[in-house]
Fold each of these.
Amino acid sequence: MGLQIENVSKTINGQQILTQVDLDIQAGSIVGLVGRNGAGKTTLMRLLAGEIQPDTGDIRLDSADLNDIFYLDTLANWLTGYNARTAADVLEIFYVNFDRQVFFDILASQDLSETKTIASFSKGQRVLIEVAAGVASGAIYLLFDEPLDGLDVFVKDYFKRLLLEVVEQGRSVMIATHNLTELDSLADRVFLIKDSEIVEQEKDSDIVKIQFVYEGDQLPSNLLEVAIILEQRGRVYLALVTHGVLDCIFSDYLTYKFVEILQVTTEDIFRKELR
Ligand SMILES: Nc1ncnc2c1ncn2[C@@H]1O[C@H](COP(=O)(O)OP(=O)(O)OP(=O)(O)O)[C@@H](O)[C@H]1O
C-alpha cells in the first residue's frame, strides 16, 4: 500500500538532479523532504505529481489514479487571479472528490474571505489557501512545497492540526521544507537529498548530541577527529558524537565536566550530513 518510488533518476538540461531514488510513502504518514537549495526537492515532487517523467525507474500508486495526488506547482502563479469561490470551481474539475464545504470552512476558520482575489492575500494566507485546497481536494497524497514558509505561530499550529486530521483519515502528506525545527514535531520520517541521492534520516541513529565543559586549553585532537563541534562558548561546547565516543568522554571525568545529553534534531543531522 502507498506511493512507491523505485530507482528513479532524473536529469534536467544535462544536470543529474536525482539518482536512483527509492522512497515509499505509507498510508497515514507525514514524510519530510529536506536538502539544500537546489538539491532536487521540488523536482521530486513534480515527478510524483506526474508533471515531469523520470528518465529511469518507476513511480507506483496503489490506486493507479494520479488525481489521488494533490500538488500545486508554483504557488506564486497558482490561481492567483481567482477568488476562493472561483478557485473552488477550478479545483472541482481537477479533483473529483473536492469538498467545497471543507475548503470554505477552513478559510472561514482563518477569516479568509471567499470573494477576495487570491493574489491580494498575504504570502502566508496564500499558503493557507493552498493547504485548504489540498485538504479539501480529497486526494490521498498531499505534496506541499515549503508550506511552513511565512506562517505565523498560530497559523502553524492550525496547519499542524489540519495535518493530523488528514493523517487520521489514512491520507499521507509530504512536506519539502527548510524549516527543520518544525519537521521534528511533524514528520514520521525524514528524507534528505544530497548529491542527487536520497537517504532516510534514522531517528534512532548512533549519534548523540552533548553539551559539556572542557577544562583543558584546547579540545584534544582525537576528539576533534571524531566529533562535530556545533558551537563553542568559552569552555562550553555543543557537539555531535557517536555513542562510542561518549563512553570515552564519560571515563575522562577530570577534563570533561557537566556532560549533558541533549535530543538530536533534524537540524543537527542536516548539519552533520551536509558539512
Ligand atoms: N526546468 C528546469 N530547467 C533547468 N534546471 C532546472 C529546472 N528545474 C529544476 N532545475 C534544476 O534542478 C535543480 C533542483 O531544483 P529543485 O527546484 O528541485 O531544488 P529544490 O531542492 O526544490 O531547491 P529549493 O530548496 O531552493 O527550492 C536545480 O539546480 C535547478 O536549477
Amino acid sequence: MENKNEFNPFMKRLNKKAKVKKVIAIMSGKGGVGKSFVTSALAVNMARKGYNVAIMDADITGPSIPQAFNIHGQTYATEDQLIIPSRSKSGIQVMSLNLLLDDETKPVIWRGPVLADMIGQFWSDVYWQDVDYMFVDMPPGTGDVPLTVFQSLPVDGVVIVTSPQDLVSMIVGKAVTMVNEMHLPITGIVENMSYFKCPDCGHIHHIFGESHIDALAKKYDIDTIAKLPIDPEIAKLVDEGKIEALNHDELDGLSEKILKM
Ligand SMILES: Nc1ncnc2c1ncn2[C@@H]1O[C@H](COP(=O)(O)OP(=O)(O)OP(=O)(O)O)[C@@H](O)[C@H]1O
C-alpha cells in the first residue's frame, strides 16, 4: 500500500491549526536498544540547527520521552478542544500518553485497537505548531502500533535503531522488510551501544560483540549509518531529564540526510 497515496483509507488528517512538514519514524526490531534515546538525541540535534522540532511518543505502553526531557504534569487544551503539546526547555514540542495520565506510574493496559486510535488522536487532535520535523518514537517490534503509524501518518522516512548483538541482524531484517512493504524510505540505521571507549586508555571495547552494521547496511542497501558508544553519561542525562545537554555528534550525518529529504 502506498503510504502517501491520498486514497489510503487509513490516512489521518491534521486539524486545521496544526502544521507538520516532515515526519520521521524511529523503529527498532526489539526492545531496549535505545530507540527512545536516539529519538530524543535526533530531535535535540535538529533543534540545535534551528528547526522547529516535535516528538510524538507512540511508544504508548512504555512512554519514556517526557522523562528524558523532564516534562511532567498535565497538558492543556485550546478553546476548540485541541491538545496543546508540552514544550521542553529548548522548545521541542512533545506529546506522550504519560502527559495525559493522572498517575504516570500506572501501566497502560489497553488492547491494540484503542492504542491505534490513540495514535490517530495524537496526529489529528494535537495543536502541532509549525513543526519542521516530527520524530515518532515507536514501540519496539513490527506489531500493531508501528503498522498504524505507517498507515495513518504521512511518514517521510524511517530510522532503524539496532544494537550489535548477533540476534539483531535477523530482527533488523524483519523491520527492514516491514518498511519496504509499506513502500517507505529507510533514512538510516543507527547502531546504539556499538562500542565503549575507555576514558583512561582510549581503547575501544566491543562490549556487546563486534559490529554488524556495515554488513547490514550493505545487505539492505542503506547508505547512512551512525554508531553510538555506550556512555554512562547518556544514561545519567536521560535519568536526570537533561537530554538537551547531550554532547555527542555521532548523529550529525543522519541529521544531514534528514535535511536533504
Ligand atoms: N548509548 C547508550 N549508552 C548508555 N546508556 C544508554 C545508551 N542508549 C540508551 N541507554 C540507556 O538504556 C536504557 C534503554 O534505552 P531506551 O529507553 O532509549 O531504549 P528503547 O529501545 O527505547 O526501549 P523500549 O524497548 O522500552 O522502547 C535507558 O536507560 C537509556 O538511558
